[in-house]
Amino acid sequence: MTHVLDPDAPAAANPPRREPPAPYRDVTRSDAAFRAFLHGLPGVDQVGAESRVAVLGTRSIKTTAKAWAIDTAISMVDLTTLEGADTPGRVRSLAAKARRPDPGDPTTPPVAAVCVYGDLAGVAKEALTGTGISVAAVATAFPSGRASRAVKLADVRDAVANGADEIDMVIDRGAFLAGRHLDVFDEIVAVKEACGDAHLKVILETGELVTLDNVRRASWLAMLAGGDFIKTSTGKVSPAATLPVCLVMLEAVRDFRAATGRQVGVKPAGGIRTTKDAIKHLVLVNEVAGPEWLSPDWFRFGASSLLNDLLLQRQKLRTGHYSGPDHVSVD
Amino acid sequence: MTNLFEYAPAPESRSIVDVAPSYGLFVDGEFVDGSGTPFKTVNPATEEVLSEVASATDADVDRAVRAARRAFTRVWGPMRPADRGKYLFRIARLLQERAREFAVLESLDNGKPIRESRDVDVPLAAAHFFYHAGWADKLDWAGLGPGPRPLGVAGQVIPWNFPLLMLAWKVAPALATGNTVVLKPAETTPLTALLFAEVCRQADLPPGVVNIVTGAGDTGRAVVEHEDVDKVAFTGSTEVGRSIARAVAGTRKRLTLELGGKAANIVFDDAPIDQAVEGIVQGVFSNQGHVCCAGSRLLVQESVHDEVIASLQRRIGTLRLGHPLDKNTDIGAINSAEQLARIRELSEVGEAEGANRWQPACELPERGFWFPPTVFTDVSPAHRIARDEVFGPVLSVLTFRTPDEAVAKANNTTYGLSAGIWTEKGSRILAVADRLRAGVVWANTFNQFDPTSPFGGYKQSGYGREGGRHGLAAYLEGAQ
């Protein structure tokens, strides 16, 4: 099977295919075999998945549990700016906010990472050195992924060279939807290799995959190819992160670890704006994947405005009254 | 691993509801004393006495039936159907307005989690009144014959598992079709019916249209056997249903019975496993398994047995058992000491007969009536836990290899109330559903209810239908 935009790319990439982990070593032996495997995963009944998240959405998280959830959610935020108008100054101010999200309250935990375009990774790195906060960079012709593999890999290497600790790549949705699963697999493997020590988050762009069956297949594909995290969306396509999608991805990482022993993280991104939304996600993590995923090592929120709402709710919980939007910094 | 994310208690406040120290009967629009010895109703989660409730004797029941007859001949029968509909709409709206009150009271008296009473019981009860309110002036077009006429006085006896919802299933269609009602709620759960009586007064429902007589089995017998009752509707155990059928035989009374069940939930190897597991849990553990249509027999295809059981056990491990008024509780209290004893007995028989009992690590509160969610594997169709209705959070797992075997095992029961099919293959759903002898067959879901959908059983699960157009027929002359 050839790549649409660059017929020579597969040959140029490494010919011997990296094997998925046991017990799935042979599922990528051919396109047909891989397709049979992915389509042999149990289906997802959309109505059932939606009613499951609706019930979990009624969990009432109060007082001490809420305080814990808010602080945990803050520590899981990948504070993100992905605009054409981004500047080094904006990234530096975001980095300052990442280190100390609430200047008035030093007990507020720092966020997990700052997420930027690759060319600004260096600026972020400089501002965050020594803080323990990671620099995440989107790469592989984000958000569409429409570029030749050579360009995508160069994009990744450039971001890593600029200091990115984590790479957020996008999968080739066109290839996935056309059934060229091995192309998508090979590309993730190649990107993972280009990452070196950097962690790889694989963006499925579930808004373009549309069905929950596809979300489950793409999740397994990305995990088999070596992704460290699976991530819902770029934030540039609507719908972005939804609870049913997150449910299916959490089931996938849970089942994958049970089968292979390897734990993969999950990152919903885009559209999570309120503390209530974030807590609903944490409840999902807790009751679907399990408490082992309740840490920034295994669960992240890709978000920008969410952080301010978390801070306002945190202030409310500590002081007993709501302040206003002027009590948190604008980004 | 210890849980990092420990949900803090989130109790629903019980201050919204005033539980009186004692209650009378509701007869002819008034609360009156009963002549029998009053009985106590307790909160099954704490064994705290909630209130003392009047007990109706034969004479009290007779007064109630006479009030119902009077209301039928003078007011409710002759009333314009559209006006009857207005009363029902008003009751439905009042149920919604006072939803929280009803939900809290239901959970207090019955032991079911507030999440279920709030999100299932009360909204569905209101929906039944809305639905039937709409029918009141359209009965001529229900396809049940020309000019359908009401039967007269309906004597209704309901169970303790869904006290308010079963009341709605009985009262709403009876009133919409122009009948009046004498209703006996279950002895262990009379309180929401008495609150409903208050709603009837609030809605200015004419006196005598709805009468509520509380009491034990004797009161129920008096209602069923009263000569001036035209129609008997009963939901409850097959044993009591049988004695009611005997009592009504040879009289002019019409009868509908909604009795026990031992539903098969059939999981094929191409099922959406995660949702099937969810459906199994919802099917047998919701309302502590006190559900006549509970999916208490899991029939799972042998090739996915281990996978399904592993998933199921992991999922059951996340169920939260505890105080019914905590908003995060999934499994509440068993309704009574008597029911708890029966569940324990059948579970012990299951073990003695050689089935494998599994229960999650789960702390039970010291006071109150509790039973942990329980799964029996290696169950044979000959075991009692595969045949008898447990009416508790106990699942029996059997396996099958072919669709024919699944159908044969599913139908191999004296009951026939409901069944479930889990498969991603649409043609299989239709083919299997056609061959299942059960009143309701759910596909890729379980325990879903709607007032528009008729509900009722085959074989010893009873006869007659409730809900939908079919349900109206049970309350109309010449329509059955």
From TrEMBL, chain A:
Keywords assigned: Lyase, Schiff base
Domain of life from the UniProt record: Bacteria
Single Gene Ontology MF annotation: deoxyribose-phosphate aldolase activity
Reactions performed catalytically: 2-deoxy-D-ribose 5-phosphate = D-glyceraldehyde 3-phosphate + acetaldehyde
Pathway where this protein functions: Carbohydrate degradation; 2-deoxy-D-ribose 1-phosphate degradation; D-glyceraldehyde 3-phosphate and acetaldehyde from 2-deoxy-alpha-D-ribose 1-phosphate: step 2/2
GO biological process terms held by the UniProt record: carbohydrate catabolic process; deoxyribonucleotide catabolic process
Disordered: region residues: 1-25
A Gene Ontology cellular-component term: cytoplasm
E.C. number: 4.1.2.4
Xref: Pfam families: DeoC
InterPro entries, per the entry: Aldolase_TIM, DeoC, DeoC/FbaB/LacD_aldolase
Family to which this protein belongs: Belongs to the DeoC/FbaB aldolase family. DeoC type 2 subfamily.
Family annotation (NCBIfam families): deoC (TIGR00126)
PANTHER family listed in its UniProt record: DEOXYRIBOSE-PHOSPHATE ALDOLASE
Protein name: Deoxyribose-phosphate aldolase
Species name: Geodermatophilus poikilotrophus
Automatic annotation (TrEMBL), chain B:
InterPro entries (UniProt xref): Ald_DH/histidinol_DH, Ald_DH_C, Ald_DH_CS_GLU, Ald_DH_N, Aldehyde_DH_dom
Residues the record marks as active site: E258
Transmembrane spans: none
Domain of life the protein comes from: Bacteria
UniProt entry keywords in alphabetical sequence: Oxidoreductase
A Pfam match: Aldedh
Matching PANTHER family: ALDEHYDE DEHYDROGENASE-RELATED
Protein family (similarity comment): Belongs to the aldehyde dehydrogenase family.
Name listed for the protein in its UniProt record: Acyl-CoA reductase
Source organism: Geodermatophilus poikilotrophus
